[in-house]
Amino acid sequence: MSATPLPTGIVTFLFSDIEGSTKLTERLGASRYGSLLELHRRALREAFGRHGGIEVGTEGDSFFVVFENPVSAVAAASDGQRALAATGWPDGAVIRVRMGIHTGEGVLVDGSYVGPDVNRAARIAGAGHGGQVLVSEATTTLVGGTLPDGVQLRTLGEHRLKDLRSERLCQLDVAGLPTAFAPIRSLDARPNNLPTQLTSFVGRQREVSAVLRLLETARLVTLTGPGGTGKTRLGLQVAAESVGRFADGVTFVPLATITDPGLVASTIASAIGLPDTGGRPPRDRLVDHLRDREHLLFLDNFEQVTAAAPLVADLLREAPRLQVLVSSRIILRLSGEQEYPVPPLELPDGTRGRLELEALSLNPAVELFVDRARAVRPDFALGAANAQAVASIVARLDGLPLAIELAAARSRLLTPDAMLKRLTRRLDLLQGAMRDLPERQQTLRGAIAWSHDLLSPPERRLFARFSVFVGGAALAEAEEVCGPPEELGRDVLDGMEALVEHSLVRPVESKGEPRFAMLATIGEFAAEQLAASGERDEIRRRHAATFLALAERAAPELTASDRRAWLDRLEEELDNLRAVRTWAVETGDAETGLRLVAAVWRFWQSHGHLAEGRDTADVLLALTAPPALDDIRLAALEAAGGICYWQGDFIDAGKRYAEVLEIRRGRSEPGPLAEALYNLSFIELFGNADTARAEELGREALELYRGLGDRPGIAKAQWELANVARDRHDVQAARGFLAEAIPALRSLEDAFLLGWALFTSAQVEARAGDLELSHARYLEALGIWVDAGDRSGIVLVLDGLAIDALLEGDPERAARLSGAVAALEKSTGTGLNPANRVIFGFDPAVLRDDPGTSAAWQDGTQLTEAEAIAYARTAPAVAHAAGESRTVSGT
């Protein structure tokens, strides 16, 4: 420690250490390594001192130095690296030192610096490699163009460090020294979906270390505690610190919006990036994916789906290198589970006098309060005038992080003394109100209630009503469900702004209009207020009606030219759509349930939710429906048949479609009858290979559509008949039907069916030997599916292009495309590829196993979806002979 007084205010911190020091010690021995260490210290101390650096401390091979001027810090770092490079190291050793520089607030407590800026500087240094100097955006901005000669700052872009916050980093390039290094050690270095945090991680390093130690020996660690203890944030930090340990990545699985244990497997699969595949149970897909992988799953908020605990046991048993971190209010009660009760933050010891201010500055609970208070009031500082009040506030809140954050958010308007008076009165009033809850939960309830009671009556009404949304809501739906201004007493937008200011609601990112959400614990409190108001049933009814209306508004757009926007919109509201299902089941509202199935089945199909869609359809079709709902039930039954069809389950699809057709034949409704005929014709074609029956049904549908003057219906019936002709190898007939269907679909702007008509046309032309036209048709269809984000369409077209490549005499290209298809099939949810391959007798397994093409096939499996699409769009390397056709049967 230097005797020189340490500066305060805005200063620049520099951290450094030797890369690979442990291995060097083992190789050279302690004595010889000690000599190298001393040479290293001498070189750096001279460089740092020459530029005004003050040594704050050293530990082992590390330096912690502070500078009053950021330019001096940069100059010291560059001189230090030059000095190390010029040193003649004995024993053939080479010392490489990494450094990190960051400018921020220098807060001194007990003779040393504390606070988030010090931690930030250390994180930046830890992300680098030996010989590399990383510089934060704050320092880069202040240095500007005043760099020393021979030194440049090179932008490395934005990186997430292990405190889960993003930092735009630069590298200091020193002339004559190496400037090429491996990718920096950030969270981006290994696969993970950990969310970036906007606030710093405060006061939990001891707990992080403890949980990391547990993960060294236990494969299942459960963080337990009541709501508000910070289980999620602690778990996220542990996951971030663990990223480097798991070769196959870390996955965060938020379960706060999931109440059905049956959805846990599909939610985990979705978080991993393993969408629904051809009707296989999510549990089986997860086991197959994780079996040989070294992976960490963080399952957050598991308490409401504890019935899914056997799934966790199955995954751990079947995947021996998998580890699972769980946050839950209760343990899972599984063999080998290691519980870690998350404690509240450490509280001040209550001592008085000058030393108390220094001690309080280091106290985790106080540090959290100060950090969050500064977020709403940048000039907030802990001092003699407010230290006792802050200490009393965090003590009254039992050190619960969420309660502290709610209180700190009031610093925008209240001083700590004024806050303490209000908080004390409110907590005293609520003490013992719910004696069956843990004491800390009562305290948290008091903190939320205190914030709630500061709202005006209209804002309280809005707060309670907003709790009905699951996973948040866009403003339009909030207005529809929560009521008009004359009913609420305030405009919803203004009210939401007030709730955001009170930290009871938070804005969330959305592609469309403003969207809001509640933290789960606050949502529970708000739901209690709604139940107490007597409005719960009515607001839930409105919620179900609102999202059913959204689904039905979206339904006709799901096959239109702008379908992607609507598909994305429904994806954003998936949890609210699930809540509509729950409402329908709990209330026996068959009409709502059946209408939901009919409206959203195309969304389930296109976005990989086929298994969930099928289960939902089965449950809602089982509701007792009066005869007046027969038409709605038929629409839902038809939708259920569509889901089975896209899963490749032609047997169940056929049963549902046949039932619909039987009922339709007994009615005088030619339009619905034509639709039923059209649907069943595909089952006869693909499921039963009965082209005669498929043609009979298709022609009957076509005549009905013509009688109605239904142009879209005529076009799709013609497309169906083109498929029949294709399977019969009747090229002329297929071309005739498509020559009418394709122009009609273009004029109707029916992008969905146009894509499939072009796909069929490509197959027909390939069969006829016109591979140039076939290729063009496939690429046009591919463009439609890419624009729509329809992954099932994309993979089918890529498969067709693989067949074309083989027909053109380019087996390597065919194998690469086929390998890409094999990888992408797992994430489409469709089971239609095998039926299409029968047309050409195409067996991709031969390309995979043939020594001449297996390497290209394997290369294809490594392509991303975007890379596979780009490759498919490149011109084939082998030109085909005009009119020439090659069989691929047996290939």
Helix content estimate:
55-70%
Give the overall average pLDDT: 88
Work out the helix count: 40
Beta strand %:
5-15%
Largest sheet: 8 strands, mixed
CATH class of the largest domain: Mainly Alpha
Describe the structure.
This protein has 891 residues and is of the alpha/beta class. The protein folds into six domains: 9-184, Nucleotide cyclase, GGDEF domain (Alpha-Beta Plaits, 2-Layer Sandwich), CATH 3.30.70.1230; 205-341, 3-Layer(aba) Sandwich (Rossmann fold); 354-447; 455-534, Orthogonal Bundle (Arc Repressor Mutant, subunit A); 555-771, Serine Threonine Protein Phosphatase 5, Tetratricopeptide repeat, CATH 1.25.40.10; 784-873, no CATH class. Helix content is 57%, strand content 11%. The chain has 40 helices and 16 strands. Strands 1, 2, 3, 4, 5, 6, 7 and 8 form an eight-stranded mixed sheet that branches. Strand 11, helix 10 (309-318) and strand 12 form a beta-alpha-beta unit. The model is unreliable at 351-355, 426-442 and 879-891 (pLDDT under 50).
List keywords for this structure.
single chain; 891 residues; alpha/beta; Alpha-Beta Plaits; five-stranded parallel sheet; 40 helices; globular; disordered C terminus
